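Researcher: First entry.
Model:
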Amino acid sequence: MSAPRGQWNSKIGFIMAAAGSAIGLGNIWRFPYVTGENGGGAFVLFYVIFVVLIGLPYMYAELALGRATQQNPVGAIEKIRPKSFWRMAGFLGVITGVGILSFYAVIAGWTVAYIYKMFVGQVGGFGAFVADPWSEISLFALFVALTSLIVQKGVSEGIERWSKILMPLFFILLLALVIYAMTLDGAGKGLEFYLKPDFSKITGRTLLAALGQAFFSLSLGMGTMITYGSYLSKNDNLVTSGVSVALFDTLIALFAGLIIFPALFTMGKDPSAGPTLVFVVLPELFAQMPGGLVVGALFFVLLTVAALTSTISLLEVPVSYLIDDHKMDRKTIVWIVAGITFLLGLPSALSQGASEFFSNFGLIPASFTSADFLSQMSFIFGDIALAVGAISLSIFVGWVWGIDKAADEVEKGAPLFAKTRGLWKFIIRFVIPLVILLVLLNTVHIF
């Protein structure tokens, strides 16, 4: 007999944990600079549309597969199609979780350092900071350890309990920073750029960027929602739970823009500053504002909490697989996976100037991504592996498991789903695989 699987103690616990998984650096670090690079308001509009039309229906597919099988991504597929090549889609999700965690925790470590840097007024020198091997490795190790300590406690005592603490803290900090940003002199111009759509700026590239951001910001494509769905009871309403997660995730991304764009326009900075926006441009902005260092420190506390709620879910996917398949002790598994992740992430930690070899790794051509090891890992796992995983899982649910069985599972505890059942089946079988394929082709510059 295997040990009983973990379960959420409450629906709000699941929503907080799943929303925490989705809400991360993608919302607060990536979303604003991608918005800035793609013309502001029009990008935001299409991002929201794609969350509703593509992201949410796909989330139901992952949650349904997890709850129906009560398994991790590999076990879920194995239960439906034993010994088939489809289980590789599940393995890809597990490997992707480890791959993303290995570089994500490096960036998460930067957020911890910047809390201190803002408090003491050392806002500059990002390049020198990330090039220091000892600070990079120490902060990376700290974040992996912190994540592991929470995940080793299990589903209800670890992930759910901490999500219930971290997510309300996150919302309080976020609202405080939004209110502060609204009082800045440039708030009006910033809000106009951010919220007033200029459809002349819409191109195919803008649409694909919005589509990619909407899909991947929801933590989809690597089996996280299969794993979290497997801890749900049959009585839970997957539809309202999924809507809550998507709503929280989208609001957080939108709120992040309400903080960042008023600040940028107040200080006359370029909104399309790219990935350096949060770690280079914003600290300088905060330093120039009255009381800005305290505000900046709170902003990086916010980022740290967002990163931690995501690293928890990234670690839980491989841990859940190993517990289900190998019946090993959770604590042992957590620290084994954490150790592997740490070793895999060391090149990323050293790739921002600390090591010439890893800083100019360049295995993937420069036309796709930067030469440093961290950017290369982000491209492989954060762009390619997620897209391939999402296509594979949507085809598996729509065509292999059987779309009617999937729809039946979504409908349990959600009787109103029957009214949109036909539309959902069409979206899962035809629209989502095609849409993600377009994003993937755009990522590899086919367009």
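Researcher: Second entry.
Model:
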Amino acid sequence: MKANSHTHVRKMVLTALFACMAFVLNTFVYFPAMAPFQHFVDVVAAVFLGPWYACAAAFLCGVMRMLSGRTIQAVAGAVFGPILGGLLWRKTKNIYLVWVGEVVGTGLLGALASYPLMTWFYELDVGSPFYYVPFYTPAAMVGGAMGVLTVLALKRTGLLQRMEKELAG
């Protein structure tokens, strides 16, 4: 088996672990229309896995949350932050920009994407496409900040570099 294949398998396994971790954490800590631990996991996953695997983890968690009775917001609000944060990490290696990507991706783009979906699928017209922004943005800010602190702690101890090296094979 090639090293690249090993890396792909490792990233798929870690994607599933991040999805499950976000699901379990969001089950225990829940606020109406807010999932701060999703954003915590999004930031950490964006750093370790990059934008596409992190998006897959967020999508999988969102689907599990929908199967548990949540609305389509669980998916629509979750996928833009890890993509934007992961792309910013890939380009700059700046953890604070990952946080900005998570907040803008989820707090604005995810909130705006949720409006038409909630209208179409649930016939819930709240009057403004910006209605969900005040719900999504604080959760993304707080959860994303927890992710940043976690990555900074891992970096300070040298574990981040070791874990990234191990993940790369």
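Model: Note on the second entry: The chain has a mean pLDDT of 91.
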